[in-house]
Amino acid sequence: MIGGISRRNWALRLSLVLNVCVFLYVCAHFGSSSGPWVEESPSLGASQVQAESVFGNGAATDHRINRTKIASSSSSSVASDSSSSSTTSKTKQAKIIANKPSNLEKAASLKDPKKPSEKKNETLKEGNVMKVGEALKNQQNKTVQLIPRSTLKLQDAIPCHEKSVEPRKAQRGDYWVLYNYVPMSMYVHCWESITYTTHADYTFLDNLEPLLDRWRAPISIALHAPGTDFPPTLEAIKYARNCGSPLIAQLVTFHIYFSSKHVPKSIPSSDKIMSQRYNCSLPPPWVNVSVSKMYKSQRKLLYPVNLGRNVARESAPTRYVLASDIELYPSPNLPAKFLEMIRRKDQAVLFRPNPKVFVLSIFEVAEKSQPPVNKTRLMQMLKAGTAIPFHKKLCAGCHNVPRSKEWQEAPETEGLHVFHIGKRIGAFIHWEPIFIGTNDDPFYDERLSWEGKSDKMTQGYALCVLDYDFLILDNAFLVHRPGIKIYKKDAHRDMLTAKTNALIRKIIVPELKVLYGTRKGCAV
Q1: Neighbours of 396 (CB within 10 A)
Q2: Which helix (H) or strand (E) holds 223?
Q3: CA-to-CA distance for 278 and 280, rounded, in angstroms?
């Protein structure tokens, strides 16, 4: 009896010792692993980080992103009476953001209200991104699904709505507009490219091929074709689509506009124009045209440049647009590089609350020179004097880009980034930037003509008052068709310029102050 009790006591003591050992082991294990940790895996192989084409092939993969694992552990309670306990830990997958500012971002002295290092525990609402610290705090026992900026799909980075590209007729003030009169054949989603929007008459259509050769993305062009200028405009469209680069039919949409006082005698249907073939053995309709014999010149009509700009811009099928002039050729691969920058979103300036546009520096090259294909070649031409800043000999202040000297001296780098944030104030109060923006930006005043000059100044004032950030891109630029412009005295145009200035000063500026308000330092 006594022996049985003694054995039971020893068994009980042994059981208690074993339970205490198990409990201490579990506590020690829990203490060493109670909190998620981030474990960095080996760097990705080259075959895993090759970027796909942004246009039409989905989002690319950024090579700077590391795969990570976030692990958490849990333990079960310890049972008595010789019962054993165990702990299990499960690994949970998540992706995080590599927030390493680029050298260019540091060098550009960008005035962001908060440095990236000051935002460690903030949730970034743009791009549906959550920082790791906040995610771990709120979801320690849940699967943490973090979407890094650099792996966002392009359609998620660019929210937008698709537009109709069906041909339609509409009045716009004193003008008739044939929207999408000859649409491009390729379908493009609003998020997957940028549209180059421009204006012209048919004599400028020889610029389409060199423009498309560098752009290779949608173009929306509004052609002024009053009266008897309408038939040769149609012939020029047919020639460009049938005899030129196949990219023209695929990527160019033609709109036509004319005054209600100068309506053509007949307007064939869009389908008829697209189905008709052209005798490509004939010279292009724009060759050897005497401008003085055109209907516009004979009737002494002004060229409604801003109406054409607005028609082309608002008809663009994509969210982002580059509103430019047809003789300004962009640096190659600009659409893909820009969209990759937007998808990547690895610069703090892209999260500033101010409305923003993306500015391109503009240059002219000598008549016998080829437009540079990259910034490195451009820098060589600037040093050799075969390239100069745009309108340097006509209106240097109109296109004097902030930090232009530093931009021209900064070496070319891979990809596209924001070089500097400019403002249209101070020495740049009369700056006329050309930029990538959206149709949310103010439009151009359609009362202004090309002959009267200052046609973009009123839009610039509105952008200034609205406190726009002018984000100057580092490796992208525009080059005017070869040939450096020089000032030529034109008494008739000087008279029209004086009238335009009076219109702006007495009528348009007071309207803008009512519509947009005022801001210190902003002027037309």
Answers
A1: 12
A2: strand 219-224
A3: 6
Residues of the chain by 3-state class (helix, strand, coil), percent to 5: 35, 20, 45
pTM over 0.70: yes
Q: Is the torsion defined by CA of 498, 502, 505, 510 positive or negative?
A: negative
Cβ–Cβ under 8 Å, residues 410 and 419: yes
Please provide residue 242's backbone torsions phi and psi, each rounded to the nearest 5 degrees: -95, -30
Q: List the pLDDT tens digit at each of the 524 positions of the chain.
A: 545 555 666 666 666 766 666 666 555 544 443 332 222 233 333 333 333 333 433 333 333 323 233 233 333 333 333 344 443 333 333 332 233 333 333 333 333 333 333 333 333 333 333 333 333 334 333 333 333 445 689 999 999 999 999 999 999 999 999 999 999 999 999 999 999 999 999 999 999 999 999 999 999 999 999 999 999 999 999 999 999 999 999 999 999 999 999 999 999 999 999 999 999 999 999 999 999 999 999 999 999 999 999 999 999 999 999 999 999 999 999 999 999 999 999 999 999 999 999 999 999 999 999 999 999 999 999 999 999 999 777 776 677 899 999 999 999 999 999 999 999 999 999 999 999 999 999 999 999 999 999 999 999 999 999 999 999 999 999 999 999 888 888 999 999 999 999 999 999 999 999 999 999 999 99
Query: Which DSSP helix (H) or strand (E) runs through 359?
Result: strand 356-365
Q: Hunting for tokens 């705090």 — which residue is that? A: 137
Kindly give, in sequence order, each residue whose CB lies less than 8 Å from that of residue 498, ignoring residues fewer than 6 positions away. none
Residue that has been written with the tokens 């020179």 in this structure: 369
Q: What is the torsion angle, in degrees rounded to the nearest 10, for the CA atoms of residue 468, residue 379, residue 417 and residue 195?
A: 70
Strand 67-75 relative to strand 219-224, pairing? unpaired
Q: How many CB atoms lie within 10 A of CB 122?
A: 12
What does the alpha-carbon distance between residue 134 and residue 132 come to, in Å, rounded to a whole number? 6
